[in-house]
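Milestone M4 deliverable, item 7.
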Amino acid sequence: MTARVLIIDDEANVRRMLRALLESEGYEVAETTVATETSSVIDSFDPHVALIDLIMPGGPDGLEVLKTIKQQARHIVVIMMSGKASLNDAVKATKLDAFQFLEKPLTPEGVLVTVAAAYEVNRTRAENRALRAVLLGDSDIVGGSIEIQHIRQLITRVARTPTRVLITGESGTGKELIARGVHEQSDRGGKPLVSLNCAAIPRELVESELFGHERGAFTGATARRHGRFELADGGTIFLDEIGDLSLDAQAKLLRVLETGLIERVGGERTISVDVRVIAATNKDLNIACRRGTFREDLFYRLNVFPIAVPPLRERPDDVAMLVTHFAAEFAARSGDPPLDFTSGAMTRLSNHPWPGNVRELANVIERLTILGGTNPIDVTDIEAVLGAAPPNTHTAVSHTGLTDALSSFEASLIQNAMQRAGGNVTDAARILKTDRANLYRRMRRLRIDPTQKRV
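Output delivered:
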């Protein structure tokens, strides 16, 4: 692929020199003298790299053009040029994601080295985006229901802003996918998206995970560690299961949201971070606030733009599209042709209540892909996978003792909850309205392996 470079400068001699130099090295070059024409040139030329003069009399300056480019096409790597740039100008350009600042008079060597490096950055970012698409799957939310169309519209609207987002919905509805969509459509899309499941981190380590720690801050802290907020600087942090944060951690998080400053555990200085916060929960935080388990002031800080994700049972029209999507995805992994489904099988899937939501549906399609069997999949195949109902306790008691019957029923409930939670013990404990430690004790007593793959 030929690298394309756009030159924006009001001096004809500079444009002529740069064009000749770059074209002699095999670059494809376009130029403009009017900063206000930048958008149309980008649409038609689609450059990989842009060289922009800082000071252009009679129109927007280079920093305004840089801002416009980053809003329109953030993948373009921008090099600023000026003979009169101040340190303040350089700082502003860096904050707007300029790649480099070249001082005039320009040198051929300096221009060629910088443009080559900028193009390499553009190419590497494109490869990373393609690789993420392969590894993580399509970030688009699958479904054609009115509810999903509305969520897509909300994502597009809020992505253009720095507003904090609170995503609510049951486990397995795809809240992380929505967070990724907001991030990737925002002007931070080329920067890190750092996730933290607040429910999966031991309470005593949450502060270190969020803000990092210094060497020697506590037993086992053998080296400095950057927290998730530092790792997300310039990008987005996704705080999943925010309702599980302790009140102490909530207070520290509130301070960061108010000041933009963090302090590592054991540290003596504050660190400024520029991070967009997206949070998610399957709890009703209004109720948690009334009970005193969640800070009301933190709730209002997070709940600036709420997005509520309905459970799959409330949008059965999406099931067919999700089934097709997952069948193609799992077939690509296995190398086999994707499964087909009879109309009866698809109706059975659409009518299922899906207590585990999209995650449970994905597990079922993956299970069917692994098991193979008939293709197209019919109702019998679906029933074989979905037909794991809890035993009838009356029948069980008539054939065995009360203790054994209760243990059998308890095991069935736990296994069903683990299936709904996709194997996540914390989520299963929440479904069963108990704590994780108690659930682990019961699983050990019943000899249920929490790591066992369930099909």
